[in-house]
């Protein structure tokens, strides 16, 4: 269960820098997302659907770096390696800022607000897609940028 990822966590991550825009929709899965192809199985930390650039999905295996990585994918449609580099750089920057009162007092960031969605069409659409990779008894939570 990704209980550490809530509105406050998302707001904290995406208010820290300007390189990546906060995604309009963030789906937080409570079960692992797995893809099986023949004899190989992939476990995802996060996903950015190719057909929509306003959605990212984070799984229980994901963390702050995953959020940035997928947000970068969604925004720029970048290749995997570019997104990985950017995710790491941004996380390093965020952690550095966390440790330094001097810098964080000068680095105000931007205001980012997320709200938990009570249920919408997007979730029904995603349900069909995520059924492929997430078990049917999962209970994804949708956060909207407001
Ligand atoms: Zn929704």
Q: Which radius of gyration do the C-alpha atoms yield?
A: 15 Å
Question: Mean pLDDT across all residues, rounded?
Answer: 80
Q: Provide the β-strand percentage band.
A: 15-25%
- Could you say which structural class the secondary elements and strand pairing correspond to? alpha+beta
Major sheet strand order: 4-5-1-7-6
Uncertain spans = none
Total separate domains:
1
Major sheet characteristics: 5 strands, mixed
Task: Output the keywords.
alpha+beta; 39% helix; 19% strand; two-stranded antiparallel sheet; 7 strands; 146 residues; binds zinc ion; five-stranded mixed beta sheet
Describe the structure.
This protein has helices at 7-14, 64-76, 80-99, 101-106, 121-130; strands spanning 25-28, 33-37, 40-44, 46-47, 55-58, 114-116, 141-145. The protein has one domain. Helix 2 crosses helix 3 (80-99). The mean pLDDT is 80. With 146 residues, the chain is α+β, with helices and mostly antiparallel strands. Strand 4 (46-47) and strand 5 (55-58) form a beta hairpin. Strands 4-5-1-7-6 form a 5-stranded mixed beta sheet, covered by helices on one side. The protein has a two-stranded antiparallel ribbon with strand order 2-3. It is 39% helix and 19% strand. It has 5 helices and 7 strands; from the N terminus they run H-E-E-E-E-E-H-H-H-E-H-E. It is globular, with a radius of gyration of 15 Å. The structure holds zinc ion (ZN). Zinc ion is lined by residues 117, 119-120, 122-123, 142.
